[in-house]
Each structure stands twice: as C-alpha cells, then as structure tokens.
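tool=predict chain=A
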Amino acid sequence: MFNLIRKDIVLQKSTLLILLPALLVYLLLNTSSIWVGIVFSVVIIMNAFANDEKTSIHMLLNSLPYTRKEIVSSKYIGAFIFMSIVVCIIFIGNLLIHQEITAWKDILFMVSLVMVAISLFFPFSYKFKSQYMFIASVVFFAIYLVVVNFFIPNLNDIMREFVQVLLTVQTAQLYLFIALAVLTLYACSWLLSIRIYERKVF
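tool=predict ok
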C-alpha cells in the first residue's frame, strides 16, 4: 500500500509545485489562512483522486497485488498526508511572513473541515465519479443562494459569528468532542468507501 501512496505523491508533484507557491502568495496577501488551507487541501486531494478515475486505471490497479481495501485506504491516508503538507506550509509561511505562530485552534478547525469534506466527497466519488461532484456543487450553491436571498439574508454573518465563537471557546472538552466526532466520521466514510469500491465492477 505504501507504493500506492507514493504513486499519488509522485503524480501530484507538478500540481504541488504550482499550488504551494500560490498558497504562499495568498498568505502574503494576508488572506484568511484557514479558508485558503481548506480550499487548497481539498483541491489537491480531489485532484489526486481524479487521476485514478479512468476505468483503465482501475483495471490496472486491480490487476496488481493489492486488495480493493488497500486501494481505498491509500486514498484516505494520502488525503491526510496532502492535508498535512498544506498545514505545514501555512504554519511555516505565517511564521516567516507574518512572524506569528498559527493558533492550534485554527489548525484544528481547518483540519476538521477538510476531513469532513473528504468524508463526504470520497464515498460520493466512489459511487458516482468525482466529475458529478461539480454538478452536485452547482446544485448546492444554487440552493445556498435561494436560502440567502429569500429565507435567511444574514446567513453569512451567522456563519461567520459561529466560527468566531467556536475559535474563542476555551473548553478543552468541546475540542476533544469535535476531534473525536470528525475522526469517527472519517473512519465511517473510509469503511463506506471500501464497501462501495468492493462492489464495483470494471
């Protein structure tokens, strides 16, 4: 399985060489490192996932001495590695550019949202292919616009205030609960993706 993870990293080398400097540019512009980190992590991870979506690639992978469980597991482990790379770049970038240490709460929030996103995206993509993720995203965005324009005009402000409150809470038990909930969701998504992939016919 290590070779599968290494394959994803090697295939993503050119993407990383483009996106990581762009990430540093965003940090120079003093953009929110949390949201930039979330976007960059998800883009890199889903790009690595999309590289293996061709039927010929799946047939090749399944002809190698790897189980389908190992193939799926390599994606989830690889996702965590790519996310960790982005987090490290943000931490080092903030330290060098702004002479500040990124708060652990910000890192936890960013990592949690990325893991939740991947927990939803991977099973969906294994079931329907990631190309349909764009369609689903457009539908979700349309629903979001309807809600903001007709039902909850201040939804953005509510979400922003909720995030600020969450980042200022001092209760360690809350963060422990969030971490455990996210890890549980990630594990369940992992198992669900394995189940979906094992039933696929190529």
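The chain has a mean pLDDT of 83. Residues 68-97 form the longest helix (30 residues).
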